[in-house]
């Protein structure tokens, strides 16, 4: 039976855009000229600190095992890097399991780490993509309010937002509004409807935090490994219905590049990567010294005996 790729409209449009741009010769992610043989693995990142660090975590280990490695940092969201993987502009990127599953199969309902991990290979096969082992480390989207706002309105879970939804402004990256855990899911699962959306494209970073703490927004989508969540002035709202699926770190690559050797190099890295590690790495990145992502990744790899040279 012929398999038909299951891409969302935005992925199809962006994929076509990348191909067209490559033909025009002005795509910064474009592959080499026809006939060229490129033996370098290009590792991508999504354009925020954690993603940059993970690119080097996997890339440095590959280089240590004799692979030629290049980096294409700051590509952007999944709607861009999935087409880039499919056309060979990049070869591997660290992604987040639940959101990846929903991008590949919008009808997917898996939400636990185990179920999401089990569903991924089949969902990705029609796209010509594959994943390596899923890491224990998880960095999920979370809906966050200030502690003062939570106390004033008696908020502990996402569903508690429903009675005041019409008064809320939610801040997040642009794509949040239409994702399964954005406007559609909030309405269907928790009855949270009528809120205003403010796009803030820094992946829950300083601009989002400032907007939340100053009251420009009342709810923010912030990643759970953001060290700011440890400060005590913010509250992560519970998600008892698992609207937001498990988001474990997983290396995503073209199926054509998947080999036993590559898996043997990178799976042990993922096996040692924990949520506590991710949070600590992000704290170092946000600290006053501002070390490079490569430096942060190398230090973690050395501490965990994952670099041989």
From TrEMBL:
Signal sequence, start to end: 1-24
Q: Name one Pfam family in it.
A: OpuAC
Residues forming the ABC-type glycine betaine transport system substrate-binding domain are 40-301
Q: Which UniProt keywords apply?
A: Signal
Q: Which GO terms describe its cellular component?
A: ATP-binding cassette (ABC) transporter complex
Q: GO molecular function terms here?
A: transmembrane transporter activity
Superkingdom is Bacteria
Q: What name is this protein filed under?
A: Osmoprotectant transport system substrate-binding protein
Task: Tell me which species this is from.
Answer: Jiangella mangrovi
């Amino acid at each position: 039976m012929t398999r038909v790729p299951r891409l969302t409209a935005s992925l199809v449009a962006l994929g076509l855009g990348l191909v067209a741009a490559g033909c025009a010769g002005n795509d910064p992610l474009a592959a080499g000229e026809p006939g060229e043989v490129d033996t370098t693995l290009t590792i991508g990142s999504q354009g925020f600190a954690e993603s940059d660090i993970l690119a080097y975590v996997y890339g440095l280990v590959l280089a240590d095992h004799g692979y030629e490695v290049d980096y294409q940092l700051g590509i952007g969201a999944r709607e861009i890097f999935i087409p880039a993987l499919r056309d060979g502009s990049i070869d591997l990127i660290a992604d987040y399991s639940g959101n990846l599953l929903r991008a590949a199969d919008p009808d997917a309902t898996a939400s636990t780490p185990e179920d999401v991990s089990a569903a991924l290979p089949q969902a990705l096969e029609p796209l010509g993509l594959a994943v390596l082992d899923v890491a224990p480390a998880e960095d999920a989207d979370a809906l966050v309010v200030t502690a003062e706002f939570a106390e004033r309105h008696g908020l502990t879970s996402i569903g508690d937002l429903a009675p005041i939804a019409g008064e809320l402004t939610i801040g997040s990256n642009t794509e949040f509004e239409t994702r399964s855990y954005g406007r559609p899911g909030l309405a269907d699962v928790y009855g949270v409807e009528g809120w205003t959306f403010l796009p803030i494209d820094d992946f829950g970073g300083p601009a989002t935090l400032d907007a939340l703490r100053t009251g420009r927004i009342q709810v923010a989508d912030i990643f759970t490994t953001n060290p700011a969540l440890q400060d005590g002035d913010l509250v992560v709202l519970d998600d008892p219905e698992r609207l937001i699926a498990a988001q474990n770190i997983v290396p995503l690559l073209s199926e054509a590049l998947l080999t036993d050797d590559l898996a043997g190099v990178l799976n042990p890295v993922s096996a040692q990567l924990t949520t506590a590690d991710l949070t600590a790495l992000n704290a170092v990145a946000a600290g006053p010294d501002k070390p490079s992502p490569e430096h942060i990744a190398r230090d973690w790899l050395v501490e965990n005996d994952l670099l041989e040279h």
